[in-house]
Amino acid sequence: MTRNPKNKNSVPPRWRKDVESVLITDTQLARRIRQMSREIERDFTGREMVIVSLLTGTVMFLGDLIRHISLPLRLDFMGVSSYGAGTESGELVFTKELRLDVRGRDVLLVDDILDTGKTLRRVQEKLCLLGPRRIRTCVLLNKKARRVEKVKADYIGFEIPDYFVVGYGLDYAERYRNLPFVGVLRPEMYKS
Ligand code: IMP
Ligand code: MG
d(Cα 35, Cα 30) in Å, to the nearest integer? Predict the structure, then answer.
């Protein structure tokens, strides 16, 4: 497939029906995530960390983030999904529990996007009860405009406006996770 280098931000023809625009390109993602890995390396040196990554939206971000972290670490996943297939976060359900013991450990919690904050709030509370030494939170995207819970993220990839975005792991009704960029979903795709 050819892509005009002058139009780096244009949506590939295959996705134009669904995606309105490219918000963050693959190049921008790669560059920023490399920086985030370096920040994390600086802060976690000296102890083996446990990375707790939330399913499923973190798949691509997590892979790119940890390949640049040259520190000993262990990786585990927590499954959490908000009930329903819409764009509003509803009731939270835990679909997979942690297997690693995080007591006394330095934990890096990774999620794709911080939106209302309900998910990370619940997960942080749950992790805290397991007695880690500290928890640092890392998110690729921050949609500050929609926050309802007071949640702090220590590492943030990109601040984004209040658009519903898909790609690079993020979905709408489990679709679009495979797009290599972050794009704005056409509202008619979820308002119909
Ligand atoms: P929160 O609980 O409202 O902060 O929402 C966090 C979760 O909602 C994320 O882990 C995503 O799965 C999902 N989410 C929120 N905003 C978006 C979006 O713009 N695109 C795709 N998923 C989103
Ligand atoms: Mg998610």
Answer: 9
Q: How many CB atoms lie within 10 A of CB 95?
A: 11
Instruction: For residue 54, give the nearest of 107, 8, 9, 109 by alpha carbon.
Output: 109
Backbone CA torsion sign across 154, 95, 106, 150: positive
Q: Give the DSSP H/E element, type plus range, for residue 135.
A: strand 134-142
Task: Note the pTM of the prediction, 2 decimals.
Answer: 0.94
**Residues pairing with 106 in the sheet:** 49, 134
Tokens of 93: 């359900």
pLDDT 10s digits, 102-138? 999 999 999 999 999 999 999 999 999 999 999 999 9
Pocket test for ligand 1, best of 19, 77, 170 (most atoms within 8 A of CB): 170
**CATH number of the domain within which 130 lies:** 3.40.50.2020
Instruction: List, for residues 59-87, the tens digit of each pLDDT value.
Output: 999 999 999 999 999 999 999 988 665 66
- Based on the structure, what is the number of domains in the chain? 1
**Using the 8-state DSSP alphabet, how is residue 5 labeled?**
G
Q: Radius of gyration over alpha carbons of the chain, in Å?
A: 17
pLDDT of amino acid 7: 63
Q: Pocket around ligand 1: residues whose beta carbon is below 6 Å from it? A: 57, 89, 111-119, 164-166, 170
Question: Does residue 60 sit within a domain?
Answer: yes
